[in-house]
Backbone:
């Protein structure tokens, strides 16, 4: 019986794969049905895992098992229920309180972390000596890294018109940004093709058995 | 542009489909070279002493499985070979299932490994960067239980884990946010733990600035090619290696599409100019 | 009051978290630790809100027989089935309300929730995203034209990186002598990624980082209030 359901599972996977692929020919009811099943299953999965992974171990269990120590968790529980008030238009304003806690926490942490990791550390990483050791290719590369970073940051300075020296630096910055976008496209193409490879490995391997997984 | 302009894009789709399917069936087996960033990840794992602990965060879902699952399997296998104890977490809800799948695929080859002693799956937590920061302060309050409901006080692998200090390195398999960026910002920059990761090709360029003199990120596995390179390094070819031929042919087809598109454009422009004259 | 108190909460919470970075001792360290746990719990409720909202929106579409309303019945049915199976028999090694469901698990080979995930959901999501491979190829043919210096740079960089990401890159330039090793396609691709791409991405990162710092300060100080919504 288990073998039957295992085989059925692979066939279900293949059927739904083709239902989605059918969109490439034309939009059709099979694709629409498969799409809505995907949405429903996804929402159901998130719902179940949120309850089992967060609400039970981090809220319910501490309150039930040791209320005298964990009583303060009543506050996020109340805030959470206030969040659900957003579903009813008349009580939507109540959800502003938990949202403000979330936004305040996020803003405070983001302010610190982005300042350190994405600004200060990146500026430090650009302050390198490009002429130290290694080959001439690395020296050229490091010079490009310094020039590219500075000119790229200059490009994003829009408070002054890009003319004169500022304009030339911004232009160099744009060139570096274009190279980086091209490289990003190359990697994006690789990523997208990989997803198709994965699907075909399933269809040709697990379903048809033509290739070895 | 004439005839070519009217080319139905469904013919392009068919070409891509065949370009990927045929090399999977008729394997070519072209060689692969290791790149610096992949070598850095390998060296980080290889340098860990036996019995040290690592945290692997599965921050992806089935959409990114073709790229991230092979590298997850390769890195976890490498860790098991080096007898590194592994703590699995997930910042994406489906990451839990991804971790479970990797364990199921590998555990038969390692019969001596015991759940709770050599590896544990702590499950999913929402909250991204805030939750990771909370883990760095009070790990046990964020994860009071593992994904099966066992108290972490009962799991030997979690002895002494109150924050990130007793964790050798952190490795995030990331398809977006929360992912490598958040782990770098907290685990490395706030708590000074070596941090590495594997990501999809789409996110890879944005992670590159973290590979720097401060070692915010110790190497990076970027996409299917890096997964294949890692499989070669650990001498265990898998789905990534077998997909590289198809990858190569598909890229060639896209480059040809770009070339044909450009040739058609410039030919048409010249015709318009001549027609205008 | 409906706006002033939330603004005050945002300010207080934000300031506590910033101060706790510099004064990690009591009370700021404890307060920030507690707030982070509260954030985790509230996030859980926020996720539930999203799913319940989806439920509500689909009910409305079915009730008022909007365009393609029949398909939304499928959405709701899938949602209800997945939630029911998850709560009744659990997932993986965790039990549901009716235990582990050994009989059904032995029949299917998995718990029902896991069976649906492994054999339907996983394939649906993976295929949905794999459609992008076709669209990127089509877009490359139609839109990737080198008209200006900037677009030519973009094109050249994309082609070199794509070639370097394939095994053909090694083959095409493998014959080059050691002195010209820097022209070996995988090395060219690696150079492009390590230097000009990193420079461009670093510039974007610094710019975006400064933007986020500015936005965070504006939110904490109550200058930015759009998150509160309407009146």
Residues:
């Amino acid at each position: 019986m288990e073998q039957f359901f295992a085989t059925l599972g692979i066939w279900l996977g293949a059927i739904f794969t083709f239902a989605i692929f059918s969109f490439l020919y034309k939009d059709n009811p099979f694709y629409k049905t498969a799409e809505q099943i995907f949405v429903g299953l996804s929402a159901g999965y998130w719902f179940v895992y949120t309850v089992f992974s967060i609400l039970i171990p981090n809220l319910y269990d501490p309150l039930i098992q040791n209320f005298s120590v964990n009583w303060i968790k009543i506050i996020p529980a109340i805030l959470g229920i206030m969040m659900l008030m957003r579903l009813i238009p008349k009580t939507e304003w109540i959800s502003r309180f938990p949202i403000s806690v979330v936004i305040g926490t996020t803003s405070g942490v983001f302010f610190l972390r982005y300042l350190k990791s994405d600004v200060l550390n990146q500026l430090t990483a650009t302050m390198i000596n490009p002429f130290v050791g290694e080959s001439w290719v690395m020296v050229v590369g490091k010079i490009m890294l310094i020039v590219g970073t500075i000119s790229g940051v200059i490009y994003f300075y829009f408070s002054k018109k890009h003319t004169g020296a500022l304009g030339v630096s911004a232009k160099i910055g744009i060139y570096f940004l274009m190279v980086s976008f091209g490289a990003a496209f190359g990697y994006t193409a690789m990523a997208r093709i990989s997803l198709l490879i994965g699907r075909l490995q399933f269809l040709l391997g697990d379903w048809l058995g033509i290739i070895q997984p | 542009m004439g005839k070519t302009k009217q080319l139905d894009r469904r013919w392009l789709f068919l070409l891509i489909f065949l370009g990927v399917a045929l090399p999977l069936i008729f394997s070519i087996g072209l060689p692969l070279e290791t790149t610096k960033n992949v070598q850095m990840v390998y060296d980080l794992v290889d340098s860990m002493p036996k019995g040290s602990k690592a945290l692997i965060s599965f921050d992806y879902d089935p959409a990114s499985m073709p790229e991230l699952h092979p590298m997850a399997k390769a890195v976890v296998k490498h860790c098991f070979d080096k007898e590194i104890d592994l703590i699995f977490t997930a910042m994406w809800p489906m990451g839990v299932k991804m971790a479970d799948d990797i364990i199921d695929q590998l555990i038969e080859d390692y019969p001596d490994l015991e759940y709770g002693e050599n590896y544990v799956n702590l499950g999913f937590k929402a909250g991204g960067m805030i939750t990771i920061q909370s883990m760095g302060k009070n790990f046990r309050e964020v994860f009071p239980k593992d994904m099966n409901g066992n108290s972490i006080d009962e799991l030997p692998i979690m002895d002494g884990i109150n924050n990130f200090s007793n964790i050798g390195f952190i490795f995030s398999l990331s398809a977006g946010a929360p992912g490598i960026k958040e782990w770098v910002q907290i685990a490395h920059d706030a708590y000074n733990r070596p941090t590495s990761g594997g990501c999809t090709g789409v996110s890879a360029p944005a992670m590159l600035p973290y590979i720097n003199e401060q070692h915010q990120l110790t190497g990076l596995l970027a996409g299917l090619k890096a997964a294949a390179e890692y499989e070669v390094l650990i001498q265990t070819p898998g789905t990534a290696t077998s997909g590289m031929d198809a990858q190569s042919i598909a890229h060639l087809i896209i480059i040809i599409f770009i070339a044909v598109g450009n040739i058609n454009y410039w030919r048409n422009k010249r015709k318009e100019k001549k027609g205008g004259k | 009051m409906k706006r002033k108190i939330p603004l005050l909460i945002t300010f207080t919470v934000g300031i506590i978290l910033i101060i706790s970075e510099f004064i990690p001792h009591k009370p700021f360290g404890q307060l920030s630790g507690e707030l982070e746990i509260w954030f985790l719990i509230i996030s859980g409720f926020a996720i539930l809100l999203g799913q319940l909202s989806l439920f509500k929106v689909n009910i409305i579409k079915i009730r008022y027989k909007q365009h393609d309303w029949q398909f939304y019945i499928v959405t709701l049915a899938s949602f209800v089935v997945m939630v029911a199976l998850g709560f009744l028999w659990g997932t993986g090694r965790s039990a549901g309300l009716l235990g582990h469901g050994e009989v059904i698990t032995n029949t299917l080979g998995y718990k029902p929730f896991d069976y649906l995930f492994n054999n339907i959901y996983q394939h649906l999501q993976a295929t949905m995203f794999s459609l992008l491979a076709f669209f990127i190829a089509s877009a490359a043919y139609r839109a990737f034209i080198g008209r200006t210096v900037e677009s030519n740079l973009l094109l050249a960089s994309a082609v070199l990186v794509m070639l370097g990401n394939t095994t053909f890159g090694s083959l095409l330039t493998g014959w080059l002598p050691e002195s010209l090793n820097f022209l070996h396609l995988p090395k060219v691709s690696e150079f492009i990624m390590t230097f000009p791409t990193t420079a461009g991405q670093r510039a974007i990162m610094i710019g975006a980082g400064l933007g986020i710092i500015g936005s965070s300060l504006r939110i904490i100080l109550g200058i930015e209030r759009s998150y509160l919504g309407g009146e």
User: Anything to note?
Assistant: Helices of chain A lie at 2-21, 29-65, 67-70, 74-84, 96-126, 136-155, 164-207.
